Amino acid sequence: MASSCRRPEHTGPPDVFYNEEEAKKYSQNSRMIEIQTQMSERAVELLNLPEGQACYLLDVGCGSGLSGDYLTEEGHHWVGVDISTAMLDVALDREVEGDLLLGDMGQGMPFRSGTFDGCISISALQWLCNADKRSHSPPKRLYTFFSTLYSSLARGCRAVFQLYPENSEQLELITSQAMRAGFTGGMVVDYPNSSKAKKFFLCLFTGGTGVLPKGLGSETSDRTVANQVQYSGQRCRFNNIKGKSAKKGRDWIMEKKERRRRQGKEVRPDTKYTGRQRRPHF
């Protein structure tokens, strides 16, 4: 999950990056189409939909409709949301079966409560972690998205996000806002020991305490690599993704202060006494 200057979200806003030239790749590049289809298939598998039943699904960051094509093949009806007009134009040219909506996921999902039986999203969620405008606050945009998505989903269903996290801090930011919005669930990591095949899926539940699916390739993974990270209404520390600090110790306090700084919150300056237990004054 190392940072890379080649990450698309570092080059500009998604509606700028996914221009006409980039959008064409999603209808002409066979390798890209194959990868998108495979990730869509896995996301739908993690949704754990009722067998043999047509569902009404939401595809967030639907792009050119490749993931929607798979939903259609599986007999489902769907609505796709994307911020890029160029990508949606390609979807229209391809005559996809789903309904398409131009929208910024960071501004929330404009649907009635309980509309959908599930949600998938392929390679889109990490874009919300960037502040492309001065008015953008990643924690606020993530919470707005997750809270409105939670409302638009029927109780007892799932939302599955395939994403490319930049680092463990980004994972914690994303999942903490999902948890705050009411979701439970956790991170499923497929093929955790492979640098190329490794994939992250955030599997969220709307109510209840669903059992987190196992990541693929777990049979061959060693014990030092986590392929499940579960969280619930309690604060998630992602102990298997980054080292755990003793609560209330110096490292714990420094980590907490650093997170608050990244979130744009006011934090007291560090001193040589930070993290030390103070003696009471009488």
Structure, explained:
It holds the Pfam family Methyltransf_11. It is found in: Cytoplasm; Nucleus. Keywords: Cytoplasm, Methyltransferase, Nucleus, S-adenosyl-L-methionine, Transferase. Belongs to the class I-like SAM-binding methyltransferase superfamily. BUD23/WBSCR22 family. The protein has 282 residues and is of the alpha/beta class. It is 32% helix and 18% strand. The protein is built from 8 helices and 8 strands. It has an 8-stranded mixed sheet, with helices on both faces. Helix 3 packs across helix 4 and helix 6 crosses helix 7. The longest helix is centred in the first third of the chain and has 18 residues. The radius of gyration is 20 Å and the shape is globular. The N terminus and C terminus are likely disordered.
Compile the SSE list and pairings.
Layout: H1 14-17, H2 20-28, H3 30-47, E1 56-60, H4 66-73, E2 77-82, H5 85-93, E3 99-102, E4 116-122, H6 138-152, E5 153-163, H7 168-180, E6 184-190, E7 199-205, E8 228-231, H8 250-262
Parallel strand pairs: 1-2, 1-4, 2-3, 4-5
Antiparallel strand pairs: 5-7, 6-7, 6-8
Helix pairs in contact: 3-4, 6-7
Largest beta sheet: what is the strand line-up?
3-2-1-4-5-7-6-8
Overall pLDDT level: 80
- What is the makeup of the main sheet? 8 strands, mixed
Annotation, overall tally of beta strands: 8
Helix content: 25-40%
Percent in strands: 15-25%
Distance between the termini: 50 Å
What is the N-to-C order of secondary-structure elements (H for helix, E for strand)? HHHEHEHEEHEHEEEH
Structural class: alpha/beta
Gross geometry = globular
Continuous helix count: 8
Poorly predicted sequence stretches spanning 5 or more consecutive residues: 1-5, 220-226, 232-248, 272-282
Gyration radius from CA atoms, angstroms? 20 Å
Oligomer kind: single chain
Pfam families: Methyltransf_11, WBS_methylT
Subcellular location: Cytoplasm; Nucleus
Family: Belongs to the class I-like SAM-binding methyltransferase superfamily. BUD23/WBSCR22 family.
InterPro entries: Bud23-like, Bud23_C, Methyltransf_11, SAM-dependent_MTases_sf
